[in-house]
Amino acid sequence: MPDARVYMPGYDGGAARIEEVLGRLPWNQVKKAVEFIIHPATTVREELFGSLTESRVVEYQTFKNPKLVERLRQSGVEPAGFEALRPSGNA
User: Fold this and answer.
1) Which residues contact residue 47 at a Cβ distance below 8 angstroms, ignoring those fewer than 6 apart?
2) DSSP state, 27?
3) Which of 8, 43, 67, 80 has CA atoms 20 to 30 A from the CA of 22?
4) Running DSSP on this structure, what letter comes out for residue 25?
5) How far apart are CA 15 and CA 66, in angstroms?
6) Which residues contact residue 90 at a Cβ distance below 8 angstroms, ignoring those fewer than 6 apart?
7) What is the DSSP track for 60-87?
8) Cα separation of 8 and 12, whole Å?
9) ∠ CA(11), CA(53), CA(67), 5° rounding?
10) pLDDT digits over 7-64, tens only?
11) Most confident of 1-5, 10-14, 85-89
12) Are 6 and 37 a contacting pair, CB within 8 Å?
């Protein structure tokens, strides 16, 4: 389980907002991971996504931004999938 979760439904704040939110996390209390819950999409498919459609495209555009990715990495943030949370020794 992650030490913290960040979820911002209807997100529309861009890279600066992401950095602001991450800057407020109590990093000294994080032992394993922080889960930043996003649901990015490249296109809007209301029949699949419900009411949060445009925000999914904004999330995709924000998190594919190489400048944001590099700034996050320089801060010690590494993107990972769920497999990173699997306890070691489990296949």
Assistant:
1) none
2) G
3) 43
4) S
5) 10
6) none
7) HHHHT-HHHHHHHHHTT-----GGGGSP
8) 9
9) 50
10) 876 666 677 788 888 888 888 888 877 888 888 888 887 787 777 678 888 888 888 8
11) 1-5
12) yes
